[in-house]
Amino acid sequence: MPSTMNRRDITPSAQRRTHRLGATLLAGAAALALTACGGAPAQSPTSALSTAPTTSSTPSVATPTPSATPTMTKPGLTGSQVFAVKIDHTRPSHPRVGTSSADVVYVEPVEAGLTRLLAVFSSTLPEKVGPVRSTRESDVDLLANYGTKVAFAFSGASDYTMARINKGTQVNLSFDADRTGYTREAGRPKPYDVIGTTSVLLQRAGGSVPPGDVGFYYGTAPTGGASGTAVRTSWTSSTISFSYASSAGKYLITSDGRQEVDVLTGGKPVEAANVIVQYVVTKPSGNRDINGVVTPLVEVTGTGKAILLREGKSWQGTWTRPDAASPTAFKTADGQDMQLAKGSTWVLLVPQGQGVTVS
């Protein structure tokens, strides 16, 4: 059943960097996205979206007392090292490479209402990843507590952004600085053809570090909850939705009207065990692309509303992160830890006030 949040119609502008379309319109959109280090804008969705929890009351949820203390583990990334990659999230980059192996995937807003993916790998390291695209300054804080020397692959950035990226503790593996570990894949249009080879990039970085504590607990689901079989949200030029497949116990992902699949699995659907909607403050950064379009700066420290979906149910609550060195604490409305199911977690960084539909 639909979320009890108030609903309003949001129709992203059909205008016309870019986890993340009639012929003349597509060509024009692709050209704009190339100059903005992004990809082609997504088709404008027309379905109704509910307003974000920041503008509506929190629904009443039954909260029976658990019979025993829930079991939990943290941080849940079980590999000996962490590898992070910035991946394009627009139609020209479909199908993507290696995303089914990611422990965590952040969907970040970038220029022109588009989105990009920051994929974090540890439990399983895929052979290849991509298409690799440029970084944004918010990535520094997102990666800060995965470890102080996280190997981070990306294709480059503006001088303004690189000055801020270089202040982070991650090990930068930029395609623009050194093409060791990268190839251009035939059959993909530029700049959506840059594919990274994980083992070579990790060797170039001198290895990476074991995963740190980012605040994710893994264990039994919180008590209570509402229906959570689907979630959908749209930025101006990008749409993503998740649909629960009960047979697999996972959520299937659709980006801009196309199902997410992974080249490395022979085109099988990418699955998420958990979906987190994290409402964040966004503001203009000092960066502009060559068309003068402003890069949004995503603030991932502070506090805000959050929604967790796992196993076909949903819980509303909050997230809190005092500073970049601290883990992010996700809590339900009644104070329970938003514990995650084992498997991949997709985190949607949604600007406060943006509509989200949960059903």
UniProtKB/TrEMBL annotation:
<protein>
    <submittedName>
        <fullName>DUF3048 domain-containing protein</fullName>
    </submittedName>
</protein>
<keyword id="KW-0732">Signal</keyword>
<dbReference type="InterPro" id="IPR023158">
    <property type="entry name" value="YerB-like_sf"/>
</dbReference>
<feature type="region of interest" description="Disordered">
    <location>
        <begin position="40"/>
        <end position="76"/>
    </location>
</feature>
<dbReference type="Pfam" id="PF11258">
    <property type="entry name" value="DUF3048"/>
</dbReference>
<feature type="signal peptide">
    <location>
        <begin position="1"/>
        <end position="42"/>
    </location>
</feature>
<dbReference type="Pfam" id="PF17479">
    <property type="entry name" value="DUF3048_C"/>
</dbReference>
<dbReference type="InterPro" id="IPR035328">
    <property type="entry name" value="DUF3048_C"/>
</dbReference>
<feature type="domain" description="DUF3048">
    <location>
        <begin position="76"/>
        <end position="204"/>
    </location>
</feature>
<feature type="domain" description="DUF3048">
    <location>
        <begin position="236"/>
        <end position="347"/>
    </location>
</feature>
<feature type="compositionally biased region" description="Low complexity">
    <location>
        <begin position="40"/>
        <end position="73"/>
    </location>
</feature>
<dbReference type="InterPro" id="IPR021416">
    <property type="entry name" value="DUF3048_N"/>
</dbReference>
